[in-house]
Write a structure and sequence with these properties.
Helices cover about 35% and strands about 35% of the residues. It is of the alpha+beta class.
């Protein structure tokens, strides 16, 4: 195992946060969400007080905590001749934020409760025969997109457990499809988790 000093002094592996986010998004097959991963990393570094924003220079500054965590601050000049601080991640810093990458991968994996859906997916309806009646219900629940197997189980009247993502945490819901009525007396169907007041065992 490398020591902290050997990692900090190894500048060959350092990457800017933006480049690192692009690289990790690509490796996880989600290139189009690289900007969201970039934002997530910056948010984590700020909450951990590893970087702070300097209003006078309008740029990020690495704190002492950030320096010891393996962040590298490098002065640069953009294409307009403006000075700014590029925050680079050493191998040590990359190792610390690795769990963020894992959570991010889960967040965009449909089987683990995707966070990002197209407008068509948000409107998608599952349908089939339930208790002798042809019904429809929303295919998206709490950032979880029901798979074909899950829909089959639900239409069979089974209770299922699904996974979703809330912030950086994976959460689980157990429930089934149930008939409900709105204020106008219209009957509709949806997935009802077992902790809901509407749940009927």
């Amino acid at each position: 195992m490398k020591t902290n000093n050997s990692i900090e002094n190894n500048t060959n592996n350092k990457l800017t946060i933006n480049d690192y986010a692009k690289k990790m998004a690509h490796l996880n097959g989600c290139d189009k969400y690289a900007h969201l991963l970039n934002r997530k990393i910056y948010s984590y570094l700020r909450s951990a007080e590893y970087i702070t924003f300097c209003e006078s220079t309008y740029t990020n500054i690495t704190t002492d905590k950030g320096f010891f965590a393996g962040l590298i601050q490098e002065p640069r000049i953009d294409s307009y001749g403006r000075h700014y601080n590029a925050i680079l991640l050493s191998e040590k810093a990359m190792n610390e934020i690795a769990p963020l990458i894992m959570n991010f991968k889960e967040a965009i994996d449909r089987e683990n409760g995707g966070l990002y859906f197209t407008s068509a997916e948000k409107k998608a309806m599952a349908q089939g025969t339930f208790q002798g009646r042809h019904i429809k219900f929303k295919r998206l629940f709490a950032k979880h997109f029901f798979t074909d197997d899950e829909i089959r189980q639900l239409l069979n009247g089974e209770n299922i457990t699904i996974s979703s993502v809330r912030g950086d945490e994976t959460v689980h819901y157990t429930g089934h499809i149930q008939a409900l009525q709105n204020d106008a007396g219209y009957t509709y169907y949806r997935f009802v988790p077992d902790f809901s007041d509407d749940y009927v065992a």
